[in-house]
């Protein structure tokens, strides 16, 4: 299943393919956690314990992250110590840290994340479960996102949050289809069977646009770099880039 939405910045979409089909959200859910944490009024410079034990969404069990499944080692180096919420939130979206995500989710709260999706006008997205919450998954609780809602989510963000998303170091899908150095703010997510990416792209010679591609299928091998599905998203991104001057017409 391939879903695609392209829209001039904060305007109606000009390209839609399966925009409201829900996919497993993968790490795109981290954008909603980021917004919930920043909007909740927490002292982002407060240091919190870096632990690896979290309460499941079921409320009756706990779970932990697997370091080998994480794409960011740095928060793990602080396990047993402390880190600031600001630093953890940054690692969550720039390096897609799973451990940092669950720490931030525990601070922000699942209700606050739900309010982020509601404020964005989401129609089919909800991400109540932490990363690797096996008891929650076994209970049938799913993190879901649609391409249309990912566009709405990005368009709902404050400028300072979009600025954080410009630091995303995983640039193998949508970013890979753009000329080197093109400014974009976005988040991707992947595991075997899934590759998604959503971003606000800022061409130097045209208006900004938002693009979200969600792919669920056998091309996605789960690798963070060498993924055929990532190359597919890059090709889609390149085609949209070629049409950038006509998107707002």
TrEMBL record:
Gene3D superfamilies documented for this protein: DD-peptidase/beta-lactamase superfamily
Keywords carried by this UniProt record: Hydrolase
Cell membrane as UniProt keyword: no
Pfam families named in the record: Beta-lactamase2
Chain ranges of the Beta-lactamase class A catalytic domain: 15-214
InterPro entries: Beta-lactam/transpept-like, Beta-lactam_cat, Beta-lactam_class-A
Record GO terms (molecular function): hydrolase activity
Name of this chain's protein: Serine hydrolase
Species for this entry: Streptomyces hesseae
